[in-house]
Amino acid sequence: MLTATYSLVAIANEQSSMRRTLHNLHQSIRNFWSSHHSINMEHIEAAFRTLSEFDTHYRHRKVEQYLIPAIRQVTNEADPLLEELDALSAVGGRLLRAVAEELKSALGSGGARISEVCISLDQYCRKLLSRFAKEEAELFPIAHRVFSVEEWFCIAEKFLSVDGQTYGGRLYSQPAPLLVSRTEKRLAAH
User: Fold this and answer.
1) Is 84's pLDDT higher than 80?
2) Is the pTM of this model over 0.85?
3) Which CATH number applies to 2-189: 3.90.1520, 1.10.10, 2.60.120, 1.20.120?
4) Residue from 55, 30, 184 nearest 119 by CA
């Protein structure tokens, strides 16, 4: 049962870090959006780049890479929930792509529709925060219930393997604090 405990703690730590980072990014976006008169393209582009970087890390979480595929293998019980989680992620991805297109067209036309871009960035954050909440409230309890000791051992083994890898020169399992400090620096500079 120690491997199940390790896996659950690893998931909870990663989840907490990612959720906290997203919450801070969301707050930063909302703060500069509320002072709409002082927003410029650099603010928008910095927020978009930071959320894009976050999205990359988010899609490579242990939950995405290992836990969800393992759940799919052992039970159909979570299928409706997994479809809902996938839909939230898909909407988030579409929102980021829409912002990217808006920013591209803004470069050619002299300005983005700042309000629309801010709304899309805000919605992206809300969708992912909603997904994190659903994972914590619904997905993790299912995983805790359906995995055997052997399955938890396999998951823990994969987690331990990932914990030693690096991603872009940073420890893969801990990208979130680096994102927050970089975001705060970018947004504070503007």
Assistant:
1) yes
2) no
3) 1.20.120
4) 30
Q: Within 13 Å of residue 174, how many CA atoms lie on the same side as its CB?
A: 7
> What is the C-alpha separation between 119 and 26, in angstroms, rounded?
11
55 Cβ neighbours under 8 A, 6+ residues apart: 92, 93, 96
Average pLDDT over residues 84-111: 85
